[in-house]
Amino acid sequence: MKKFIWLSLTLMTTLSYAQNVEIKKNSILVDNTETLKFEKINYSEYSIIDKLGNEIINLQFKDNGTSFESDDYMTIYFVNSKKIIDSSNTGRIAGFGVKNMIKNFITWLLKEKVLDSNGEINEDKINDFKLKYGK
Fold first, then answer.
1. What's the sign of the alpha-carbon dihedral 96, 98, 101, 107?
2. What is the value of pTM for the model shown?
3. Domain segments of the chain: what residues?
4. Side-chain-side CA neighbours of residue 101 (13 Å)
5. What percent of the chain has pLDDT over 70?
6. Hey, CA dihedral for 100, 104, 109, 115, is it positive or negative?
7. I need a surface site. Which of 28, 47, 56, 97 has the fewest CB within 10 A?
């Protein structure tokens, strides 16, 4: 019984802090509010754009020129802070189609508090994110 109560409270707490991310056309909505936009630059490069039209994040996928997926990685460039993170955690944002991939990417940044629900980047959290997920 105690485990059930603990599990229920933990689940409710987790769900209450979860933010709803939706992609409509090229708009990124967080909790039903348009917060950011994204642009597909080419097959392997994407821009996350703020409300003013400025690129704040550049996301690139690198395949190392091999047929093995295990050596693939992504480069996340935080434009304003000029910080680059190379991460092999591509599975965290994998999804069927570009919209699902962008949704998973934004959800990941929100969960790690690198990005807030207003589309603002927390510069201090970028370093934590790099230590946790950088290669």
1. negative
2. 0.83
3. 20-133
4. 20
5. 84
6. positive
7. 97
